[in-house]
Amino acid sequence: MTRVVFTGPHAALAAALEPGAAYAGMPPEGAVAEAIEELATAPAPRVAAPVAGDEVVDTGAWNLPDPVGLCLEEVRELQAVIELRISGLSG
Q1: Domain count within the chain
Q2: Is the pTM of this model over 0.85?
Q3: Burial of 88 (0-12, 13-18, 19+ CB in 10 A)
């Protein structure tokens, strides 16, 4: 089974929204961490780097606003957009 590994500025949030996914990069902070906690799911694992066989999704290519410094409401809005992007990955 191929694991999806998210990279880029929205990696932690995207991985939290995709069951079985992981992320590479900095751990979430601030409103992003709070939004992830609200999901009430097990946190996605953080990996040092993707490995052979992983499907890598670079969230930087999504051209979304950087989540650093956003308030919780803005992160929730961003989360809705990310959910749509993720739903388009499998189809």
Answers
A1: 1
A2: yes
A3: exposed
